[in-house]
Design a protein that fits this description.
heterodimer; A: mainly alpha; globular; B: mainly alpha; 33 helices
Chain lengths: ~500, ~775
C-alpha cells in the first residue's frame, strides 16, 4: 500500500478525475445515467485514494513532504514535475476529494438549467484535477498550470449554468483572477531569475528562504503574489468578483467555489509566499493583517445590507477569509494552524450554506430574504440544517468554525517578534468585534427565513418538500464533519501542526 | 475516588440523552421525556455520589507535605506548573535540599528551574514576593491547616505550536467548587425535567424541548467541570446556544425570536471580553489554558499585575453579559419569553451563574488583578453593587410576574458578583447555592400560577386571590419569598448576611477591605427585594381574582418539585452556619461545613480572609427586610400611605422617576434603536453602497477603460500604423469597408485580447520595476 501510494498515489489522485472527464467525452450525451455514474466513480476513486492517504500518512513527520514524485518535465526552463504533500496540503486535499463527489451526488437530480449533465460533470471533474493539482504541486510552474486550469471550467460553469446575470459575473470572475495570475507568474519568474539556484522547485526555494534575494526585491515579488493570491482569497478590496460569481453560479459552482477555490489563494500564501520570501512576508504582514480585518468588518456590514440569501453568504466568505488571512499575517505557528483549520472549516460550513441556499432556491424559486419565512414549518429538517450551518458559521464552539476563528483571534495577540504588537492587538479586538456582527447577520437571516410562519404565497406550495435522499447523502458527511471537528480538532491539527511550525519558522527566518 | 476521576460520565450521559431524544424521542411512548428524566435522574445520583466522594477525599489526611503533595491527584500533563512542582518535589528528596530559595539554576539545559522559582513566587522579584510568601506559608503552616487536593484528569485536545510544549487539553477538574455545581445543576435540572413533563405536555415541540434541555444540562456540566479555559469557552457558548433555542422555543411569534436573538447577540458582545481575556491569560501563563496553571501563577506572582488587571476587566465584561450585570443585563428580562421551566433552570439557577462561576474559578486572576485585598473599591464590586441596587428598583414597576423575578435574579446575581469583588468568595458561592433553590421555586411557582391563569403572567390584570385555589403553590412561594428576602432562619438570611459581612460593617473593616459604598447599595437592594416580593405576593395571591375562568391547583408533577425545592430553599442555610454568633458557639462538626467543602486552600487559590458573623449588621439587615415587608403590607393590604397612590401622576419628579424605570433606564433604546439600528441601517447600507458603486465602479471602470484604450490602439495603431505599414503599398478602395468589418465582428475576442494586452502591459511595468 505504502509503495503504491509512494509511486502512484499523487499522480492518480490528480489525474483520475481528468481521466473520468475524458471517458465521459467518449460516451454519448444521451446516456445521462452512465455519465453521472462515470463522474461519481472517478471522483469516488479520488476520494478513496484520499482516504488511503489519510490512513497511510506519517503524522509524526507531517512537517516534511511525503509521497514525493519527482520527474523531468520541461527541462528547457528547469521546471520539474514534482508532487508531494505535507500536513498543510493533506487536509485541503482531503477536503477537495470529499466535496467533489458530494457535489456530483447532489447533481444527480439537480442539474441546473440548461441541463447537459455530460458537459457539466466533465467540467467539474476537470476542475477537481486543477484543484487537487494545486494542492500537491511542488514546482512553481506546475502549481501555476494547475492554478490556471481551475479557472476555465469555473468560467463555463458560471457562464453557462448560471443565473440571469451570468455573463457579466463569469467574465468578471475570469478577468479579475486572470489579472492576479498574470502578476503571480511574473513574480514566479522573478523569483526564478533572482534566485541563485535558478529553479522552480519549491523545496529548494524554501530551503534558500529568500536568503539570496535582496529585501526590496523580495517585497516587490511578494507584492505580485499578494495580488495573485489576494484576489483569489479574496481579500478586501479585491473581493468584488466574489458576490457576483456566487450569486450567479449554480449551486454546485457556489459550493466548490466557497469550499475549495477560495482556499487556493490562502494556500498560496501559506505554501509559497510566506516561506519562500520571508522578508517580503514580514514587510507585507501588517498590510495583509489590516486588510484582513477591514475585510472582516466590511464583509459583515455588507452582509447586513443584503436582501438576497446567496449574496449574503457570499459576503460572509469575505469576512471569514479575513480571519484566515489575519491568522496567516501573524506569521506564527499558532496563526498558520488556525488558518489551515479555518480554511477546512469554512469549506465545509460555507459549502453547506450554499447547498442549503441552492435547495431553498429550487423549492421557492427565490432567495429574496423578505419573501421567505417559516422554513422550519415548511421544511423542518432543511430549516434545522440551515440553523446548524449558520451556528457553525458564526464560530460556535463545539462546531468546526470555532477552531478556525478563536485561534485566529488568539494568534493576533502575540504575532511574530518582528511585527508590531500594538497593531496586531488592536486588530485582534476589532476582529473579535467581527464575531458579534457575524452572529448578527447570520441570526437575522435565520430569523427571517426559518422562523415565523410561512408567507402566504408559499404556505401550501406542494413544491416545498423536506430534504430528499440525494441531499441527505451529499450533506450528511459534511454535517458530521462539522460536528466531529468541533469536538476533535486534533484530527486536523495533528496534520497541520508540524508543517505549520516549519512554515512559521521559515517565514520568520528562524 | 472513582467518582472523582470519572466525573466526565455525568455530562457525557446528558449528551447521550440529547442524541437519543433527538433521534428516537418521537418514537417513544412518552415522546422522549422519559429518556431525559431517566438520564438526569442518574446524573443527579452520580453527582451526589461524587459529592460524597469529595467529602471523604477532602477530609483525608494528606501524605507528604507542601504544594506538590496537594497536587498529587492531578494527572501528569494537565498542568505544567503542577508537573514542575512534582518534579521539584522529587528533586528535593534526592538532592536533600530543603530550601532552594536563591538557588541559581546552574544547569542550563534544565528549563524547569527558571519557571519554578517564578511559579512558586519564591524568587525575590520584589513586589510579588509578598503575597506569594503568605500563600506558601498558609499552605504548609500548622497541623490543622488543611490543603485542598483537586482531582484533575485530562486528555489531549489539540496541539498547536512547538510540539511537546503546547498541548491544549480538556478534561475534568474536580474540587469542591465544581462538585457543588454538579449537584446544583443536576438537582435543579431534575426538578425542572419532572415539572416540564406536565407543564409543557401537549406542546407542539415537546420532544425537541426535552432534547435541548438535555443538551443544556450536558453543556452546563461540561462547563463546570472544565479543566482548561478553552473548554470553559466551549461550555459557555454551548449553554448560550441552548438558551437561544429555548428562549425562542415558540419561534412562530416574532417577539419570542426577537428575545432569543437579543439574548444571543448581547452575550456575543460579552464574549468578546471572554475571548480576549482567555487569549491574554493563555500567553501570560506561558501558553497554557490549564486553569490550575493560571491560578497557581496568578496567586503566586507569576503573572504581572498589569496583565492580570487587563485580563480581569475583559473577563468581567463577559460576566456582565452572561450573568446579567449592568450594563449588559438587558437580554435577561426579555429571555422570559421562553417556557417558564427554562427560565427557572437556565435564567435563574444555572446558566446565568456561569459568569459568577467563572470568576470564582479563576479567582486568583481577579483577586490579584483587581487588588481585592485591602482596597475599598474595584470594578467587580462596583458592577455587582450597581446591578444589585438598580436591578431591584426595576422590579418594582413590572406587571409581569416573570419580569419581576427576572429583575430580582439580576439583582441577586449582583449580590454574588459584589461578594466576589470584596473577597467574600465562599459567601458568593453559598448565595449561588441557596439562590438556585429559592429562585427556582419562585419561577416554577410563577409557572404554576400562569397555568391557572390561562397562561398569562400578568399578575396585575390576570391574577389575584390565588392563595385559596393554589395552596401548595402559595405556601412554597411564601417560603421562597421569605428566603429571598433574607428572613431568619431561612437559607437566604445566612447567605446574604455572609455577603454583607464580607464588606465590613459601617464601623469595622470586612475580611479583605472596607467596602462601605457597596454595602450601602446592597442594603438598599435588600430592602427593595423584600418590598417588591411582598408586592408580588399581594398581586398574585391576595385581593380578588381578576382573570377569567376558574383557576385550579396544578398536578403533582408540578407541585412536588415545588415542595422539594422550597424545603431545600428553607433549610440549606444550615450548611454554612458561622462558628459563633456572639455568645453562641456552634460545634465544629456543623459550622462552616459548606466552606470546608467548597473553598480551596493551597497554591491554586489566593489567601482570603473570612469575615466573622456580624450581629449588628445581621440584625440591621433583618430589620430592614422586615420593615420593607411591613411597609409594603400596610400600603397594599391596609391602604396606608394614601398620598403615595398615584404619586407619579401628580408629582413631576416621581413621574420622571417612574418613566425612567418603566423605560428600563433607556438601555434598550440605546442598544436596540441607536446602536443596532445604526449598524443594521446606515452603516450596513453605506458599506453596501461603497461596495457597489465605489469598488465595483473602479473595477467596471477599469474594464471599460481597457476596452476603450484597446479600441483606440486597435483603430489607430494596429490598423493604421502596423497594418498601414504592411499594407501601405496596397491601399485599395475597399480599405474603408475592411476597417468597418473588423470593428463589427469579433467583439468578444477583441475584449479578451485587449485585456491580455492590458495585463501584459502591467506585468511589463512590474518587471521593469523589479529590474
Amino acid at each position: 500500500m505504502t509503495d503504491f501510494l509512494n509511486d502512484w498515489g499523487l499522480i492518480l489522485i490528480t489525474f483520475l478525475p481528468l481521466a473520468g472527464a475524458l471517458v465521459m467525452l467518449a460516451v454519448p450525451k444521451e446516456s445521462e445515467e452512465t455519465q453521472k455514474t462515470i463522474a461519481l466513480v472517478a471522483s469516488g476513486a479520488a476520494f478513496a485514494l484520499g482516504v488511503a492517504f489519510l490512513i497511510n500518512f506519517d503524522y509524526d513527520s507531517a512537517g516534511v513532504l511525503q509521497y514525493v514524485v519527482d520527474n523531468e518535465w520541461i527541462p528547457i526552463i528547469n521546471s520539474r514535475f514534482i508532487l508531494g504533500i505535507d500536513g498543510i496540503s493533506l487536509p485541503l486535499l482531503a477536503l477537495t476529494v470529499l466535496i467533489v463527489p458530494l457535489v456530483i451526488i447532489y447533481s444527480w437530480n439537480h442539474i441546473p438549467s440548461p441541463g447537459n449533465p455530460k458537459a457539466f460533470l466533465a467540467l467539474i471533474l476537470l476542475l477537481e484535477t486543477g484543484m487537487v493539482g494545486t494542492f500537491v504541486a511542488q514546482d512553481l510552474i506546475l502549481f501555476f498550470v494547475f492554478f490556471e486550469i481551475v479557472l476555465l471550467p469555473m468560467f463555463f460553469i458560471i457562464g453557462v449554468w448560471g443565473g440571469p446575470d451570468r455573463k457579466y459575473a463569469s467574465i468578471k470572475f475570469f478577468l479579475f483572477t486572470l489579472f492576479g495570475s498574470a502578476l503571480m507568474i511574473v513574480s514566479f519568474l522573478a523569483l526564478y531569475f533572482m534566485s541563485a539556484e535558478q529553479t522552480f522547485d519549491m523545496r529548494i526555494l524554501q530551503e534558500l528562504g529568500g536568503l539570496d534575494i535582496a529585501r526590496t526585491t523580495q517585497i516587490l515579488i511578494f507584492g505580485g503574489m499578494f495580488l495573485g493570491f489576494g484576489i483569489k482569497v479574496p481579500m478586501f478590496p479585491f473581493h468584488t468578483w466574489l458576490p457576483d460569481a456566487h450569486t450567479q453560479a449554480p449551486t454546485q459552482g457556489s459550493v466548490i467555489l466557497a469550499a475549495v477555490l477560495l482556499k487556493l489563494g490562502t494556500y498560496g500564501f501559506v505554501r509559497i509566499a510566506l516561506p519562500l520570501l520571508p522578508e517580503g512576508a514580514q514587510w507585507w504582514a501588517p498590510i495583509i493583517a489590516v486588510l484582513a480585518v477591514i475585510g472582516i468588518i466590511y464583509g459583515a456590514l455588507a452582509c447586513l445590507a443584503q436582501t438576497d440569501m446567496k449574496r449574503l453568504i457570499a459576503f460572509s466568505s469575505v469576512a471569514h477569509m479575513g480571519f484566515v488571512m489575519l491568522a496567516v499575517a501573524t506569521l506564527t505557528d499558532f496563526g498558520i494552524n488556525a488558518a489551515v483549520f479555518g480554511m477546512v472549516a469554512h469549506g465545509l460550513i460555507t459549502g453547506m450554506l450554499f447547498f442549503v441556499a441552492g435547495s431553498i432556491k429550487e423549492r421557492y424559486h427565490t432567495l429574496e430574504i423578505s419573501r421567505l419565512g417559516g422554513l422550519l414549518i415548511s421544511a423542518p429538517k432543511l430549516g434545522w440544517i440551515l440553523g446548524l450551518s449558520a451556528m457553525a458559521s458564526l464560530g460556535l464552539p463545539g462546531l468546526a468554525g470555532f477552531w478556525g476563528e478563536f485561534p485566529a483571534i488568539l494568534s493576533a495577540y502575540e504575532p511574530a517578534p518582528m511585527l508590531s504588537e500594538p497593531l496586531f492587538r488592536t486588530l485582534m479586538v476589532i476582529a473579535a468585534l467581527g464575531t458579534v456582527l457575524a452572529a448578527g447577520y447570520l441570526l437575522w437571516m435565520y430569523q427571517r427565513t426559518a422562523m415565523g410562519t410561512p408567507p402566504e404565497e408559499f404556505a401550501d406550495d406542494p413544491e416545498i418538500t423536506d430534504v430528499n435522499t440525494a441531499e441527505w447523502i451529499s450533506w450528511t458527511p459534511m454535517l458530521l464533519l462539522i460536528v466531529v471537528l468541533g469536538f476533535f480538532p486534533s484530527l486536523i491539527f495533528n496534520m497541520t501542526n508540524p508543517a505549520a511550525t516549519a512554515i512559521a519558522a521559515a517565514a520568520t527566518g528562524g | 475516588m472513582w467518582f472523582l476521576t470519572h466525573a466526565w460520565i455525568i455530562p457525557a450521559l446528558m449528551a447521550l440523552s440529547f442524541l437519543l431524544i433527538l433521534f428516537f424521542g418521537k418514537k417513544m411512548p412518552k415522546k422522549g421525556s422519559e429518556i431525559g428524566i431517566a438520564a438526569i435522574g442518574i446524573a443527579f445520583i452520580l453527582a451526589l455520589l461524587t459529592a460524597g466522594s469529595w467529602y471523604t477525599h477532602n477530609n483525608e489526611e494528606v501524605e507528604g507535605h507542601g504544594d506538590a503533595a496537594a497536587m498529587a491527584d492531578v494527572q501528569e500533563g494537565c498542568s505544567n506548573e503542577v508537573d514542575h512542582l512534582a518534579a521539584e518535589d522529587h528533586g528535593e528528596e534526592t538532592e536533600d535540599a530543603g530550601d532552594h530559595e536563591g538557588e541559581e539554576p546552574t544547569d542550563v539545559g534544565d528549563s524547569d528551574e527558571g519557571t519554578d522559582d517564578h511559579a512558586l513566587g519564591q524568587s525575590d522579584s520584589g513586589e510579588y514576593a509578598a503575597p506569594a510568601a503568605t500563600s506558601t506559608a498558609v499552605a504548609s503552616e500548622g497541623e490543622e491547616e488543611h490543603v485542598t487536593r483537586p482531582v484533575v484528569r485530562c486528555a489531549a485536545w489539540a496541539e498547536i505550536g512547538t510540539p511537546g510544549s503546547s498541548l491544549i487539553t480538556w478534561g475534568t477538574m474536580v474540587d469542591g467548587q465544581s462538585v457543588l455545581m454538579l449537584v446544583v445543576v443536576t438537582l435543579i435540572s431534575l426538578m425542572v425535567f419532572i415539572y416540564s413533563s406536565e407543564y409543557v405536555s401537549g406542546d407542539r415541540r415537546y420532544t425537541h424541548y426535552f432534547a435541548f434541555l438535555s443538551l443544556f444540562s450536558a453543556s452546563m456540566l461540561f462547563f463546570v467541570l472544565a479543566q482548561s479555559t478553552i473548554q470553559m469557552i466551549v461550555g459557555w457558548e454551548l449553554v448560550g446556544v441552548c438558551s437561544f433555542v429555548l428562549i425562542g422555543h415558540w419561534w412562530e411569534e416574532k417577539p419570542n425570536s426577537n428575545a432569543a436573538l437579543k439574548a444571543f447577540l448581547t452575550n456575543r458582545v460579552g464574549d468578546i471580553g471572554l475571548l480576549i481575556g482567555v487569549a491574554i491569560l493563555y500567553f501570560a501563563a506561558g501558553r497554557s489554558f490549564s486553569i490550575l496553571d493560571l491560578n497557581i501563577l496568578a496567586a503566586n506572582g507569576g503573572i504581572s499585575h498589569g496583565i492580570l488587571l487587563v485580563a480581569s476587566v475583559c473577563l468581567i465584561f463577559a460576566v456582565m453579559s452572561k450573568s446579567g450585570q449592568f450594563i449588559l443585563h438587558t437580554w435577561l428580562p426579555d429571555a422570559m419569553a421562553g417556557p417558564t421551566p427554562v427560565s427557572a433552570l437556565i435564567h435563574a439557577a444555572t446558566m446565568v451563574v456561569a459568569g459568577i462561576y467563572m470568576v470564582a474559578r479563576l479567582y486568583p486572576v481577579f483577586f490579584e488583578g483587581l487588588s481585592i485585598s485591602g482596597s475599598s473599591v474595584n470594578f467587580l464590586a462596583i458592577v455587582g453593587a450597581v446591578t444589585a441596587m438598580f436591578g431591584a428598583l426595576l422590579a418594582f414597576v413590572q406587571k409581569d410576574i416573570k419580569k419581576v423575578l427576572a429583575y430580582s435574579t439580576i439583582s441577586q446575581l449582583g449580590f454574588m458578583v459584589t461578594a466576589l469583588g470584596v473577597g467574600a468568595w465562599t459567601a458568593a458561592l453559598f448565595h449561588l447555592f441557596t439562590h438556585a433553590m429559592f429562585k427556582a421555586t419562585l419561577f416554577l411557582g410563577a409557572g404554576s400560577l400562569s397555568n391557572a391563569a390561562h397562561h398569562s403572567f400578568d399578575m396585575v390584570n390576570d391574577m389575584g386571590g390565588m392563595r385559596k385555589v393554589l395552596p401548595r403553590t402559595f405556601w412554597t412561594f411564601i417560603v421562597a419569598t421569605a428566603a429571598l428576602a433574607g428572613i431568619f432562619p431561612l437559607s437566604g438570611f445566612w447567605s446574604k448576611d455572609e455577603i454583607l459581612a464580607g464588606h465590613g460593617s459601617l464601623f469595622s473593616a470586612g475580611g479583605n477591605g472596607t467596602y462601605h459604598v457597596m454595602l450601602v447599595m446592597l442594603l438598599i437592594g435588600a430592602f427593595c427585594t423584600a418590598a417588591y416580593m411582598t408586592r408580588t405576593i399581594w398581586y398574585a395571591f391576595y385581593g380578588e381574582f381578576r382573570g377569567h375562568g376558574t383557576p385550579h391547583e396544578s398536578g403533582s408533577r408540578i407541585t412536588v418539585p415545588l415542595i422539594i425545592l422550597a424545603t431545600l430553599g428553607a433549610v440549606v442555610g444550615v450548611l454554612n452556619l458561622p462558628e459563633e454568633i456572639g455568645p453562641f458557639t456552634f460545634p465544629e462538626s456543623i459550622s462552616l461545613q459548606f466552606e470546608h467543602f467548597v473553598e480551596p486552600v493551597g497554591a491554586y487559590f489566593p489567601t482570603i480572609s473570612h469575615a466573622e458573623f456580624n450581629i449588628p449588621l445581621a440584625i440591621f439587615s433583618l430589620a430592614l427586610a422586615l420593615s420593607a415587608v411591613l411597609l409594603t403590607y400596610l400600603y397594599y393590604w391596609k391602604g396606608a400611605f394614601k398620598f403615595l397612590h398615584g404619586l407619579s401622576e401628580r408629582n413631576r419628579v416621581a413621574g420622571l422617576g417612574k418613566t425612567i424605570l418603566v423605560n428600563k433606564y433607556y438601555f434598550d433604546w440605546l442598544y436596540t434603536d441607536v446602536i443596532t439600528g445604526f449598524v443594521k441601517g446606515p452603516a450596513a447600507r453605506a458599506t453596501n453602497w461603497f461596495n457597489q458603486h465605489v469598488l465595483d465602479g473602479i473595477v467596471d471602470g477599469t474594464a471599460k477603460g481597457a476596452v476603450v484604450a484597446g479600441q483606440f490602439v486597435y483603430e489607430n495603431i494596429d490598423q493604421k500604423v502596423v497594418d498601414g505599414a504592411v499594407n501601405g503599398a496596397a491601399i485599395t478602395t475597399s480599405e474603408a469597408g475592411g476597417v468597418l468589418r473588423h470593428l463589427q465582428t469579433g467583439r468578444i475576442q477583441q475584449y479578451a485580447a485587449l485585456f491580455f494586452a492590458a495585463a501584459a502591459l502591467l506585468a511589463g511595468v512590474f518587471v521593469v520595476a523589479i529590474g
